[in-house]
Every structure is written in structure tokens, then in C-alpha cells.
Amino acid sequence: MRVDHAKAAAEATQHLLSLGHRRIAHIVGPHRSPMAQHRREGFLRALRKAGIEAGPESCVQGDSTVASGEIAMEQLLSRPRRPTAVFAANDEMAVGGIRAAKRLGFRVPEDVSLVGFNDQGLAEIYDPPLTTISIPTRELGYRAMLKLKRVLAGERVEQDEVLPTRFILRSTTAPPPRTDRKK
After folding, report:
1. If you write DSSP's letter for every residue of 61-117 in order, what string do you get?
2. Regarding beta strands 85-88 and 24-28, do their DSSP bridges make them parallel or antiparallel, or are they unpaired?
3. Distance from C-alpha of 11 to C-alpha of 102, rounded to nearest angstrom
4. Would the pLDDT of 11 be above 90?
5. What is the reported pTM?
6. Strands 113-115 and 85-88, how do they pair?
7. Nearest-CA neighbor of 167 among 8, 52, 40, 29?
8. Contacts of 86 (CB under 8 A, 6+ apart)
9. What percent of the chain has pLDDT over 90?
10. Distance CA 130, CA 114 (A)
């Protein structure tokens, strides 16, 4: 039982691309997390598909906490060619990114757009409400328990079942600022 993290991350990145963003950064989750690695792969795949070369500067390391999202966003927004959009590997780092952007005088989404991942409870109630990828966590848990029940009963079960994610559009994304739009 799983979701396709790479596909969902590519969808989040594609949303930013469809708005006209070309300088998109990614706040990556922990190095050792397979989910974080898959989300990074999806981000990079979407950029390559759009013909955008992504170098090491495209990704800033986080550790899945609000504090690491703040630190990463501070780094990104202090660059001479700052990104106009950021895809964070989870909602907590995205919220940290919003906090840092506001503290530094940037408006979300007018100056910088953000997309998170997981659709945690805070995503909908944060100011502004966070655009994110929703994972069917309850369904994953329910189906895993049903599968376990069948395994314990000696029944055959499907080994790999992929559940769909959903893109949730809220208020943290918009086209890039006029000065950064592709002509």
C-alpha cells in the first residue's frame, strides 16, 4: 500500500510551471527518507520535462520541521536570483517557508508561491491556506489493515497497490511577479 510520491511531486511542480514560474526551488525532506527522495525526483523530472535545467542550487535541505522550512526559505530568498516559487516536501516546511517569507517582507503568493505536501490539518487553516498534495492516509491505513487480516487468514493479497493523491488548490500560489514573468 503506497502512493506515488514522485508523480505527486511532479504534479505540484507542474502546477507552478503552469502559472508561469521558471525559477522554482525545492525544500527537500531528510536525506535518508525514501519519500523525500521520491519527491525530489518528481520535482526534478517536472523541471526537465519543461526544459528547465535544475542544478544543485534548485534544492535546499530541510528536515521536515517548520524551523528547517524557515531556514531554507531564508537561504532561498537571500539569493541574487531568488526563486519565484517553492515546492516544499511537506506542509510543515512550507509553513516555515511562509513564516520566513512574511518576516523578510515578501508576500505569499504575490512575491513567492508555495506548495506543500501531505495536506496536514494546519494546511487549510494557515494564513494563507496552503496549496498542497493530499495523501489518503486514512484509506492507506484501512487498506493496510484489511490486507493484514487477509494475510493472517492465509489468503493471497496484491503485493503493490498504489492509491491516488489529490492536488489541493488553496491560496499560496499565483503567477510570478510581473518582473519575473516569461516574455
Report:
1. E--SSHHHHHHHHHHHHTSTT--SEEEESSHHHHHHHHHHHHHTT--TTTT-EEE-S
2. parallel
3. 26
4. yes
5. 0.92
6. parallel
7. 8
8. 24, 25, 26, 27, 73, 76, 94, 97, 112, 113, 114, 115
9. 89
10. 8
Q: Decide if 109 contacts 174 (C-beta within 8 A).
A: yes
* DSSP 8-state class, residue 51: T
Tell me: the pLDDT tens digits for 100-142?
Answer: 999 999 999 999 999 999 999 999 999 999 999 999 999 999 9
Report which residue type is found at 48: R
pLDDT at 159: 79
Omega of the bond leading into 128 within 30 degrees of 0 (cis): yes
What domains appear along the chain, each with residue ranges and CATH number? Answer: 2-136+164-178 (3.40.50.2300)
Q: How do residues 155-170 score in pLDDT, each as one tens digit?
A: 998 878 899 999 999 9
Q: In the numeric block, which cell numbers belong to residue 68?
A: 528547517
